[in-house]
Design brief:
Blueprint: H1 10-22, H2 36-43, H3 47-60, E1 63-66, E2 70-73, E3 81-83, H4 90-96, E4 101-112, E5 130-140, E6 143-153, H5 154-157, H6 162-166, H7 169-175, E7 181-192, H8 195-201, E8 208-218, E9 223-231, E10 237-239
Parallel strand pairs: 3-10
Antiparallel strand pairs: 1-2, 4-5, 5-6, 6-9, 7-8, 8-9
Helix pairs in contact: 1-3
Amino acid sequence: MTERFISNNVKELAARIIYEIRHGLIGAEDHKLASEPELIAHYNTTRYCLRKALSQLAGMGYIYQAHGIGTFVRPGGKESSIGIQNQIDLAEELRLQGHSLKTERVDEKVIRAKQAVFSPSGIKLDPNIFLIDVKRFRTLDGKPYLLEHSYFLKDIVGQIPDKALKKSIFEYLKNDLKLKVGFSDKTISADFLSFEEAGFFSSNTGAPSLVVRDDSFLNSGKLFVFSRLVYDYRQTNFFMFKKLR
């Protein structure tokens, strides 16, 4: 193992473990990590913090846990992959992998639902309710990566500060507005780039793209935002895992 590391911060600990995995400092020989007591001692952390960090890494595809045997590093790695089942913020997930996701431009306006260019799946909204229409143009390590188009229900989220629009809207909703975020439904498909999207990605209108439709709900089951996320397919990989019975 490497030099002693001290942290009870889950994000810092997860980042450190990822660093050591990526650089072959742990799990390099037989892919197996040290036991839980050994990891706790090495990082001088708590059991709770270690387990939360390992849970994040499992969701991101770095490790898997075999009951009664131990925790193992997944062969091949998951560089720049987005964990479909992961619950942490996208920018944070990519940061842990050593990347920088930045919001370069934000377009925001208030519209009525009948003016929206797409709708949530299987839900009919009152055409006259107000939505906050947000487009975010985001780069990964300086290259065009993601165009997010979201509609937030204004009667739930109110105003979204500029700082949140540039950083993490979901962190603002959870930590500042104290919304009890519940779950999201996602569908992934291929589509063709529009003129605006092609301009952002420096591509051609009609070129292929990866699209994620995301409808997000409070834990009460009430919809609070629905989104269309367009990724540059040349830079994007999605990851998920499934337990086989």
